[in-house]
Amino acid sequence: MKKIYLFVLFLGVLFKATSQGGGILQTFDAASALPTGWSTTATSNVVVENASSSSGYTIPTTDPTVSASGTNNLSMKNCGSATVSVTTAAFDLTGKSNVIVGFGRRRTSAFNATVAFSVSVDGGSTFSTLSSDVSSAANTTWAFLGPISVPAAANQASVIFRFDYTATNSGLCTGSPANFRIDDFIVGWNDVFPVKLTFFKAEERSGGVELSWQTSEEISNQRFEIERSLDAKSFEKIGTIEGKGTISIAQHYSFLDSSPLQGLNYYRLKQVDFDGKYSYSVIRDIRAKGQGHSFRVYPNPATNEVKIELPQEEEINNGELLDLTGRIVKRYAAGSDKVSIIDLRPGVYILKIKTQTGASYQQRIIKIN
Ligand SMILES: [Ca+2]
């Protein structure tokens, strides 16, 4: 119990200078196995051991600073020609902002594999690279890498970090093969959002989807950007509403999305401070009928082509087909109500149509073989 108490005390002082904050520090000292929630694809290559113990650095994101924990660390060995992943526990960062990550590191001079470091904010489905190589700049002397800023992790319920490398040495993993070690893996954050949201909701209205939210307190709140998505991953900005700066009286806001997409729409707020820092709200979803109920794209899914049906008075002016990253993969001019998709790879695309009256329509289409 004593150990836990000390740990909590330590968390409470992180980021003291800016606002109340917190963090999780993994020292690998509690046991000689991977910590709870951590995993690896190659148990011969990845061990927690009391060898070449960390020393000589302080963790720069703590206040007061904390020294290297020593004793156990996590060793990634270059042996067995294995493809190795080390995955951290999932961190619940709901309500957290200004997320950072860092760790102590050391390598033997013979370690010549490249260790990539990445983060997932969707519970481990997809990872994005924070650094393509965290090992080659390491030395035989321990040093701390970080803090590395991870803006995508703010307010996310399941944040997972991962180390990946391919062993370049086919030798046995027993004994003392070349290795890259980490210790004092820390994830830190600010607790206090500059803006306290009491609610955020999305409701269908005759003119579209109405988003409404209320703040109980705002500090340095420049604006809200309203964002919409078809898949809850790739969002686009559909509007901006000015914030009230700094105020401690409840404020009510609303925004009408007059052209929701057909089907399921996801909405979130991006709250931006005067200094450019931002954080995201929770995501709300709503199934909207969309504008122009006679807009239809069929068949869907499709293999060769889709046919676009618009309200009687409307005609296509131009159109675009985008992939889910927002990249335009095809453009169309006026004239045809058919769109060939025969040359596209199977997957999900967004068809955007502008009509000659200036109205726009969107539909998610699925290309199959
Ligand atoms: Ca340690």
Unreliable spans: 1-19
CATH homologous superfamily descriptor of the largest domain? Galactose-binding domain-like
The rough form would be described as flat
Average residue pLDDT: 86
- CATH architecture annotation of the largest domain: Sandwich
Q: Would you count the extended β strands for me?
A: 27
Q: Could you state the order of secondary-structure elements as H and E?
A: HEEEEEEEEEEEEEEEEEEEEEEEEEEE
The helix/strand class is mainly beta
Topology-level CATH name of the largest domain:
Jelly Rolls
Straight-line distance between termini: 59 Å
How much helicity do the residues have?
under 10%
Beta percentage is: over 45%
Total of DSSP H or I helical runs spanning 4+ residues: 1
* Number of structural units classed as domains: 3
CATH class wording of the largest domain: Mainly Beta
Spell out which ligands are present.
Answer: calcium ion
